[in-house]
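Exercise: predict the structure of this protein bound to magnesium ion.
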Amino acid sequence: MDGNGRWAKQRGLPRIEGHRRGVESVRTVLDAARELGIRYLTLYAFSVENWKRPQDEVGALMGLLEFFLKRETATLIRNKVRLRTIGRIGDLPDTVRLHLERAMEATSSFVDHTLVLALNYGARTEVIDAARAYAAAVAAGKEKLNDSSWSTFSRYLSTADLPDPDLVIRTSGETRLSNFLLMQSAYAEFVFTPVLWPDFGKADLAAAVAEYARRERRFGQTSDQLTPTG
Ligand code: IPE
Ligand code: MG
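Solution:
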């Protein structure tokens, strides 16, 4: 979700107005994703690097997150959407964490749709945390170093019980990953759109999904192997 600041700047508004509008896009895209039958939606809401922004912007983003959780938890429950997080949420402000925990608890039994909020998330910190936990498990005799494989190690990532993303969309014309799900998106399809996040709507999501559907995913194999009949 990128481009909130530029959206505001184009209109001579403070950056926070862009973030405010960005929250409305979240609501729209959540609905659209459900309608399209997308079962897992992960939103990169706050990265480990975002703490480096001006303090008032960080504070405003945390405030908006709390506002979103207060306003949307009832809707998540009504729509049977399970809320999850990835990232070091222990470092978030207490009030935000409280609302997060409440919302996760209230939606934990839902299975059809999952909304994953990446909060204080960074792929590299995630790998460090996983390596640490894996090493501890090896030291405790719960894992054997010789048996190391991606399927065992990946259970120590914050996405252990989540599928890898099929499609990664980045808005606002930037064409980089910025430390987002680096390991998990090894075979993801990428769609980069110039649309700024506050302008991103149902039609944009549908267009990205249509683009995804046109791609051939080979996972290292040849095209003929995938469709032997041609
Ligand atoms: C993305 O919009 C929002 C968050 C990272 C929370 P930006 O704030 O990065 O918007 P630009 O890149 O300045 O336009
Ligand atoms: Mg940005």
